[in-house]
Write a structure and sequence with these properties.
- The model has no long low-confidence stretch (mean pLDDT 80).
- The protein is built from four helices and no strands.
- It has two domains: 1-49, no CATH class; 58-102.
- The chain is mostly helical.
């Protein structure tokens, strides 16, 4: 509820003299080398904090090829699956490389 009312943002900014805690898309600014504009919290602390609240309509800002804004749980599952595939592929390459040495 605090997220929807803006109370969470207000409380965080009371604690932080930089007042960088906002999820307003208009507050995003470009950063060299990054395709996506970043929130003020990222520019200050290199972190994006997104509370996941189903039904609130706050997405990650990362769009798929169908221009659907991915939710954070979907991103984490996708990232975990990618990391698992990469680790498995690396492991297979090491086994293959070791077998060629013998």
């Amino acid at each position: 509820m605090e997220l929807m009312t803006g109370e969470l943002e207000r409380k965080l900014n009371l604690l932080d003299p930089s007042k960088v805690w906002t999820w307003d898309p208009a507050s995003r600014k470009p950063y060299r080398g990054y395709p996506k504009k970043q929130l003020p919290m990222w520019h200050k602390y290199r972190v994006e904090f997104y509370p996941h609240v189903p039904g609130l309509g706050i997405g990650s800002g990362i769009l798929d090829k169908y221009v659907i804004n991915w939710s954070f749980p979907r991103l984490f599952v996708s990232a975990a699956a990618t990391a698992s595939r990469e680790a498995s592929s690396k492991s297979n390459m090491e086994v293959s490389h070791d077998s060629q040495r013998r």
